[in-house]
Amino acid sequence: MKMTPVASTTADEEDRGAIGLSVIVPAYNEEDRLAPTLKAIRAHLQDGPAAWELIVVDDGSTDGTAAVVEAAADEEPRVRLLRTPANRGKGHAVRTGVLASRGHRVLVTDADLATPIEELALLERRMDEGAPAAVGSRALPGSRIAVRQHALREVMGRIGGGLIRAAAVPGIRDTQCGFKLFDGDKARTAFAGSRLDGWAFDVEILRFFQQQGWEVAEVPVRWAHQPGSKVRPNAYPRVLADLVRVRWHTYRRTASPARFAIPALFLIFSAFLYDGLWSDPAGRYLIDSNHDQQQWEWFFAATADNVVHLRNPLSSDFQNFPLGVNLMANTAMLGLSIPLTPLTLALGPQFTWAVVLTGGLAATAWAWYRLLARRFTRSRWAAALGGGFCAFAPPVISHGNAHPNFAVLFMFPLIIDRLLRLCEGRRIKRDGVVLGLFLAYQVFLGEEALLLAVTGLLLFTLGYAAASPHVAAAVARPLLTGLAIAALVSVPLVLGPVAWQFYGPQSYRSVLHGQTGNHPMAFLEFATRSLAGDGPIAASLSLNPTEENAFFGWPLVAFTVALVVHMWNRPAVRALGFTALAAAVLSLGQNIPLPGTDKTLPGPWRLLAEAPLYESVIESRMAMVCVPAVGILLALACDRLAVRRARSERESSRRVIGVAALAAALLPLLPTPFRTVERAPTPAFFADGTWREYVRPGHALVPVPLPSPTETAALGWQIDTGLGFPFPGGYFNGPWGPERDGFAGSPPRPTSELLRKVHETGEVPDIGEPQRRAFRQDLDFWHADTLVLTDQRFTAALRTAVIRLTGDEPRRTGGTWVWDVRADR
């Protein structure tokens, strides 16, 4: 319902436009801050060329705010006071003032004048150029922040700003800066139809301007946080709630509740799981990711740097300098890291990491939900349950700690939908082209996940052909034709990048990982992050918390078997059951251990272990193919329970038993929030820019010990310096030895090995002329300018080793020990 201000909201038409500028100041209990603000505004406008008015709206203050305004009005009649009998919110107060204004232009500014009134000239300049609105911004290059907010408030503001841009006002980076100048008539039109009384009124008004096609110019301004802000932590949820109201008002006539409720639930649940990360994206770390989070943040940062500097996005030499890293041969997810470059540049790769994980899980659930609702179920909530399982099943949650390429899987439901369209044989050319584009894009999201999905689809095809050969024969021709068209579209798009991956600089043949099959008992136990999970048991049956690729729990395994038996008459169910079983057996690896014994059986993975592409796959990940197969089965079962009505007491009892069994199978698997810890602070040597004195362009900084898959702190330091320097070593996959096998980290050199051993043991070996000669050769190879040692385990031993190698004592600066080796080369 539209709120009507207590004060008059109209003015005589003859007075409209006679006043050049109306300044609106909302005020609630601003007795202490308002007088200087009014004085500053009056002083600035006093000598201006246009007539003006200053309207203060007292929003039900309980202090002396009104008296302050009345005193100012006694001195200057162009100051007006409007009062509301009760506190209704900032949006209501601004609406009251704007609708009572008479100015050709209307400026809305906060009572604390966090943006100085002198910045008005910048906004007027943009409106003189034709923009109907000019809004101050704290988020643009050129914005000057004199006093910053609390770090948590800034993080919350960034998160909220990102959501606001995505949901309501794309293109406007700062909607909440309280300094906005509008065309008067357009502002009064916008506010007359506004509904929000709270903090999010800005979003509603700016969205109205965009919907009308009226340009909103964003202008960088000066801004300083003022003590005594009325924005409290509970304001953020209210703003988000108002944001939902804005979107809901737009679509309420055409949208069913489920259309928005289900994806909203997915997003809320995903945000709940990553709550610890969102509390401070730049300061929190997913502890179960080991060192992978640091690696992924570096991938996002390096990709963004390549894009902004128009460099090859498939490579970077900031790690493993001077040889570099083949990003296409690593899990850089260029399909997301490239389009998310603006987000990375604006808010940092840590924020991008949180967005990719949170949004990726929610988007995956939503994509599966849409597929299931369109193709498999009549009940939307049955489709939601199946979609939620596909995104939040234990194997996916395990990878949600550290491997977004195995957690962000929203493309696969889209690919499956296109394959089903091809089977219908209606628009083969169009669907083949679209499928080809989808497959090409997935290559840049995750090739190993695509390989596993293709394997799962082949298993399903075999199962369905056996269950219903006549149907399989009927769809074979249009399907194969569409696949051929998809290949013609996708192969040219990915040929260059894939050639770079396998034959370009720092490419490798296959990844060395040994035999990593699942233990059979892993399917019956519960994952670490499941509600019924047992960390020690899961650890004994998996590589680490990021590779718990089975762990469906015995209740779900039993329930799935019962489902397949109960719905055996349906060919799709038989095919899904076969797919899940075959994938589970393949995931057991080349040698299947017999529980309770020390014996093994040969596994069918032996048939694939040496096959091209499969040789690099961690075989336990084949169990992830079970997730969508089981998810679709669950959706079918839930749909039957939701849609079929009980016609007898016996059927009613069966339905109750079915619901209870479904709950017993799924409740133990509910994921719990990911654990986070506080990051170690970046040494001042890097944070305050001291490193610039020691590293020349085109030369390297050498951390001691060298960065490696187990020592990744230097990647964070490099990110915090804006990728200001390269370093040797690092955490990536690259070639190893004459066979160019894939290996994590850079090949060892004499100096890197010496420092690694000192770091691991705390013992300094004998260092003579051979070691120093090798050290100088390594410095030449690395183009090293300086060596940096931070405080860590065995710092004294590492310092002694480097002193003996260089023959020089280090300099203590910025919390680090620094050896300048430029003069030695």
Task: Characterize the structure shown.
This protein has 825 residues and is of the alpha/beta class. It is built from 30 helices and 21 strands. The strands form seven sheets. It has a seven-stranded mixed beta sheet with strand order 3-2-1-4-7-5-8, with helices on both faces. Strands 16-19-21-20 form a four-stranded mixed beta sheet. It has a two-stranded parallel sheet with strand order 6-9. β11 and β12 (325-326) form a beta hairpin. α23 (571-586) runs antiparallel to α24 (626-643). The longest helix is centred in the middle third of the chain and has 35 residues, at 469-503. It is globular and about 95 Å long.
Features:
alpha/beta; 12% strand; disordered N terminus; single chain; 825 residues
Name the shape in a single word: globular
Q: How many individual helices?
A: 30
Indicate the percent of residues in helices: 40-55%
Query: Structural class, from helix and strand content?
Result: alpha/beta
Unreliable stretches: 1-14, 250-255
Let me know the average pLDDT: 89
Gap between N and C termini, in Å?
A: 76 Å
Rg from alpha-carbon coordinates: 31 Å
